[in-house]
Design a protein that fits this description.
Structural class: alpha+beta
Shape: globular
Distance between the termini: 69 Å
Helix content: 10-25%
Number of helices: 3
Number of strands: 11
Oligomer: single chain
Largest sheet: 9 strands, mixed, barrel
Radius of gyration: 21 Å
Length: 251
């Protein structure tokens, strides 16, 4: 009986390989290339809510946020002028520099702040991040691939990563230069690259240390940290957040 079962298992595996199918096995059975056995990696699966710092002050009745000291990147003169132009536009009440009010994705690294929650789905060869905010998503490939040479710029870019012990190290390139960095509308160039180090600080607290490099727009690297708390069973579902439907209702 055991011999027959073993034979059937071997046949099934051979058939799956022939058809290009994968057999699901526990996550810890894979290394980042998906070949040799490796130490068990942390499980980021679940819905996470941002642990927000105290609210920044607002300006009068315009509800415009004021950045705290050190919260913004250190801009080169050209991009400092662009930033001031954005602020002047916003003070008039214009939304032309507010991508999300025009039904556009927030883009990276703005995406990371996950205004309405972030769901992480984890497999051995990739991790997917789904944000309820604007129904945005991003994928981090863990199979050792490199970004394609003919990469088309996108809102969240192209992300690859690997594990260093209990820390997920992510590099993101290929980002559009017409997105903003944050709620202040901070600009950036097409040379921007984003590095992240993501790890569990406790079973239900996740930390993302972000380093943003942009030699055209910044005088030095920009670093900040975002923390999340894993949602409990009563708050572990994301909902649709379709901007176009919201506009239709508003009309």
């Amino acid at each position: 009986m055991i011999t027959t079962m073993t034979s059937r298992l071997h046949c099934a595996l051979a058939l799956a390989a022939l058809l290009g199918l994968s057999i699901l096995v526990p996550l810890h059975a894979y290394s980042q290339q998906g070949s040799a056995p490796a130490a068990k990696v942390p499980d980021f699966t679940g819905v996470w809510r941002t642990i927000n710092p105290p609210d920044a002050p607002r300006v009068g009745t315009t509800l415009r946020w004021l950045p705290r000291p050190g919260e913004l990147p250190s801009f080169t003169p050209e991009y400092e002028a662009r930033y001031k132009k954005v602020q002047a536009s916003r003070e008039t009440g214009s939304e032309e520099t507010e991508p999300v009010t025009r039904c556009l994705p927030p883009g990276m690294p703005y995406f990371i702040f996950a205004e309405y929650g972030l769901e992480i789905v984890q497999a051995h060869n990739k991790i997917a991040f789904f944000s309820e905010w604007m129904d945005a998503y991003r994928r981090v490939y863990l199979d050792g691939r490199k970004p394609p040479k003919d990469l088309d710029p996108s809102y969240n870019g192209y992300s690859t990563g690997h594990w260093e012990g209990d820390t997920l190290v992510v590099e993101t390139v290929g980002l559009r230069d017409d997105t903003v960095l944050d709620r202040y509308g901070s600009p950036h160039s097409d040379a921007m690259r984003i590095s992240e180090r993501i790890r569990l600080m406790s079973p239900d607290v996740l930390e993302d240390k972000i380093t943003v490099n942009d030699p055209k727009a910044f005088t030095k690297t920009w670093e900040f940290v975002v923390s999340y708390r894993r949602a409990g069973p009563a708050n572990d579902e994301l909902r649709e957040n379709t901007c176009t439907e919201s506009l239709k209702v508003a009309k």
